[in-house]
Amino acid sequence: MGWIRPPGPVSDGLRIGLLGGSFDPAHGGHLYVSNIARKALKLDYVWWLVSPGNPLKPLPQPLAVRLARARNAARDAHIFVTDIEAGTGTRFTVDTVAALRKRFAQVDFVWLMGSDNLEQFSRWRRWQQIADSIPIAVVRRPGSVLASLHAPLARRIGVSRRLGHAPSLVVLDGPRSLESSTRLREQALGAAAEAVLNLTP
Hints:
Largest sheet: 6 strands, parallel
Number of domains: 1
Radius of gyration: 17 Å
Structural class: alpha/beta
Shape: globular
Mean pLDDT: 86
Low-confidence stretches: 184-201
CATH class: Alpha Beta
Oligomer: single chain
């Protein structure tokens, strides 16, 4: 595991949200989750952890392409886009969180995710260990607003009104964004297929 360079300021007592994913591509939904969480939880910054690849999803676009698109999409002085996982060689969230907490022990980290990810969180490697090591904030997304009621994580530790020390789960709400990476990829594939059909004599 290599030395981890912080993507932004780090100092004692900073509260930093971690939003992980393949960001294939980054979109308004990522901004929505970041901004809702930052305001509600009074986070100083949010780090977008662009992963080399998500074990639960198809092979993504090259990392350099996704990083560039994410940086273009972020457009916020409080959001830092980073490929920390590529540098540390960690592929799973549980290992990434452990590495970051060890390297930046003076920072209070919060794991951020949309409610669509909460539904599948129990499929993540050692998800119980993740929940025990870092507080988790979930932002409700369309199509999964009830995820907090039946997700294994919520049944295991309950949903709190306020975020505390791990294990702690809070569910945040706001005007809901319809964007998702899956939907954008499907739209791009559809547009490409339509373009091919239009070229066919």
